[in-house]
Fold this protein.
Amino acid sequence: MILHELLQVGKVSVLSLAQRLNVSPATIRRDLGELEQRGLLRRSHGGAEPVQPPLYEPFRHISSFHEQERERSAEKRRIGLVASELVSDGEILAIGAGTTATQVARSVCLHKGITVLTNAVNVAMELSHRDDLKVIVTGGFLSGDWFALVGPAAIESVGEIFVDKVFIGVDGIHVEHGITTNYPDQATIHRAMMRQARKKIVVADHRKIGAIGTALIAPVNDVDILITDEGVSDEAIAPFIAIGIDVQRA
């Protein structure tokens, strides 16, 4: 419950957790200490914050990744938590690159015994301290400041593994023009991940609904589930529901 609350709101306090869980502040402090020792959070004055991977520090002031991550961060956290509810212990997952997909990775690690295949260096680093799950990183070359591995080697390695579910972040999802990105090299690796998955899940905040990026990932009919946020209108998601996509609001 502490980790779920941390993922949902971004930070937690000892007093609010004690009231919510009906336990003493001393109990909460002890639990926070144990979770910190396991690398699942970082203690702060009066509470706790998410662990900030050292990987990001050299890019703190220059990476557009962090600018995108700060945009609609609450919506992305909720999308990640809804995505986590679709995962079962022991499953094999593929998680693509991007800020919303990164939040999915942070949330699904609440499960035990999962295996995560990813082409995102930052996702691999964020999960690397968890000895109760397995991380598989594709090969490939690094694409810009989005921490994404792309190219023939990445595609080849993805083709060797079948996964239960894939989570793909997009720049647009349109009922006629499909799911798209503004990064053609990432479109290819994400398409390869979708081919290997039993269930294909798109994670996108409401700004992406009806938008069209420059490179096609896959036709919209390939999508099983779309997770978006409460800011999306009924009118915007109606075409997707009409063709059988399970649309979930976070």
